[in-house]
């Protein structure tokens, strides 16, 4: 069986990938804490290993064919603890790669971030655009990329680096700490507060990609085999950027359809509309290889709002 190890496999993206891939493949997830069996079962028929075991060649899981590496400090913790971000995001990636190679792993898929291109993201961005990370989160992901790409270029392992844009959707568990992501935050606000509060004028462009599309692309990569993908580096997004206010308005509309109530959007004091440079986060490299991005934003947002409704209560 094509056994897959997903680091951070009970997290936001990792949890969804574990649930998707466990239908067809043997899936092992790593976590820095032991997950109760009943909770683990929500991710599908998977097994777990403590993350620390991955950092030793001898205790690395055996008979793993593919590693999907997601475990990293998030953007907030990376700012607060930059040295820890270097240790976890960069050095542990290097160690994981070395141990994967020593244990005969054939494929390595590394999840990086669109924000290695800089902030804010503007204009047309392709895989050939010059990286300009300015944040500890993006800086450490860019450094980790180099370790992965170096091993790929030496043909020691088959693999791919994925530069993921702003993914959104319902996590497997409500306790997954990614409610700071904009779309997820707004959906949670809608349920808890009955209104949306933006921290900006909402005129900025973002590329929001449905987690369902992320799942499907990774499933296809593994089914094909990374060695059958022509490039080692891909942008993964929707390819259809929208303004933050447009996303908020979609949430308001879907909330009304689901619950029969109208909610409002509030802005900061002295808010003024501005003209922002449009964003084209190009996914042409994926599309030309036959990958499909369906961009069913409405359904992804609907499922996210229903998840929030089931797991969060309205604040009086």
Write structural notes for this entry:
It is a single chain. With 316 residues, the protein is α/β, with parallel strands linked by helices. The protein has two domains: 4-168 and 209-236, Rossmann fold; 182-207 and 240-277 and 294-311, UDP-galactose 4-epimerase, domain 1 (Alpha-Beta Complex), CATH 3.90.25.10. Helices cover 38% and strands 18% of the residues. It has helices at residues 12-21, 37-40, 75-80, 82-102, 136-153, 182-193, 211-224, 244-259, 284-288, 297-311; strands spanning 4-7, 27-31, 46-50, 66-69, 107-113, 123-125, 158-164, 166-168, 195-197, 205-206, 208-210, 233-236, 242-243, 264-266, 279-281. Helix 1 (12-21) crosses helix 7, helix 4 (82-102) runs parallel beside helix 5 and helix 6 (182-193) crosses helix 10 (297-311). The longest helix has 21 residues, at 82-102. The relative contact order is 0.14.
Order of helices and strands: EHEHEEHHEEHEEHEEEHEEHEEHH
Number of helices: 10
Question: What is the fold-level CATH name, i.e. the topology of the largest domain?
Answer: Rossmann fold
Structural class per helix/strand content?
alpha/beta
The assigned CATH architecture of the largest domain is 3-Layer(aba) Sandwich
Q: What do we call the CATH homologous superfamily of the largest domain?
A: NAD(P)-binding Rossmann-like Domain
For this structure, what is the CATH class of the largest domain? Alpha Beta
Q: Indicate the radius of gyration in whole angstroms.
A: 19 Å
Number of domains: 2
Distance between the termini: 51 Å
Q: What topology, given as strand order, has the largest sheet?
A: 3-2-1-4-5-7-12
Mean pLDDT, to the nearest integer, reads 96
- Give the overall shape: globular
Helix content percent band: 25-40%
Strand content: 15-25%
* Spans where pLDDT lies below 50 across 5 or more residues: none
The main pleated sheet reads as: 7 strands, parallel
Number of strands: 15
